[in-house]
From TrEMBL:
GO molecular-function terms, A-Z: ATP binding; ATP hydrolysis activity; transmembrane transporter activity
InterPro entries the UniProt entry points to: AAA+_ATPase, ABC_transporter-like_ATP-bd, ABC_transporter-like_CS, MacB-like_ATP-bd, P-loop_NTPase
SUPFAM superfamilies, sorted: P-loop containing nucleoside triphosphate hydrolases
A Pfam family this chain is assigned to: ABC_tran
GO cellular component: membrane protein complex
Keywords on record: ATP-binding, Lipoprotein, Nucleotide-binding, Translocase, Transport
Statement: the UniProt record of this protein carries the keyword Transport: yes
UniProt-recorded name of the protein: Lipoprotein-releasing system ATP-binding protein
Length: 234
């Protein structure tokens, strides 16, 4: 059976024109199949965040093609792209962007309510499920500002999972955490990959994190210089 292609980048290039014309991405091509756990690494400034911004449909100014779930993301209105993001992509950033005036549960529910697919009760039930799965069900009714940094990142992961996304995209999800919490968050990603076959694309500086994913894409000066199954690294 052919594995489903969740995301395809075809000849993606991007340049910034201010103040000088600089090519930041150059002919980036790869596919991500369902169930892959992919890390993207490379030196600071090599274009990782710029690429992730394009792949997540937030930046629409580039050359080449982005396909998500078999659909070409070109000439689409912002509201259509927002719908694709909300339905198919779960985001985990370096900073969690939780709303501090809301409870943990309400934060996790937000993208679920925005999707407008499930009743409020169902969204709440799903949010509780995700929190419990990540071992933080007991925090549900706490104010999101009154939990630790590591807990905040786990809440952000629960929030990213609320709509059962096709792919989770992370930009330095352990970048702001100490070693212990980084490892905990990594273990969660690993469990999502192994137990739930969750497709993930994670940009990271952390090579020990990257070594434990299933595939590593290495970038240099806006190009992919290596794209290997991680077992090849050891
Ligand atoms: N809006 C912009 N205008 C001009 N140049 C930009 C802009 N955004 C990024 N760049 C340049 O594009 C290049 C790639 O930046 P990008 O943030 O994608 O790198 P990165 O690999 O994610 O770096 P880091 O690991 O430090 O986050 C850098 O040289 C950066 O200075």
């Amino acid at each position: 059976m052919m594995e489903k292609i969740v995301l395809a980048a075809r000849h993606i290039s991007k340049e910034f024109a201010d103040p000088l014309r600089v090519k930041v991405l150059s002919d980036v091509c790869f596919e991500i199949k369902a169930g892959e756990f992919v890390s993207v690494t490379g030196k600071s400034g090599c274009g990782k965040s710029t690429l992730l911004y394009i792949l997540s449909t937030m930046d629409t100014v580039y050359e080449g093609e982005l396909w998500i779930d078999g659909q070409l993301m070109k000439n689409r209105k912002e509201e259509q792209l927002a719908q694709v993001r909300n339905e198919k992509i779960g985001f985990v950033f370096q900073f969690h962007y939780l709303l501090k005036e809301f409870t943990v549960l309400q934060n996790v529910m937000l993208p679920g309510l925005k999707l407008n697919k499930y009743s409020k009760q169902e969204v709440e039930h799903r949010a509780m499920e995700k929190l419990t799965m990540l071992g933080i069900g007991d925090l549900a009714l706490k104010n999101a500002n009154h939990v630790s940094g590591g807990e905040k990142q786990r809440i952000a992961i629960a929030r990213a999972l609320i709509n059962d996304p096709m792919i989770i995209m992370g930009d330095e999800p352990t970048g702001n955490l100490d070693k212990k919490n980084s490892e905990l968050v990594f273990e969660i990603f690993k469990r999502l990959a192994e137990e739930y076959n969750q497709t993930m694309l994670i940009v990271t500086h952390d090579t020990s994190f990257a070594r434990k994913t299933s595939r590593n894409i290495e970038m240099e000066d806006g190009q992919i210089i290596n794209d290997i199954a991680v077992t090849d690294l050891v």
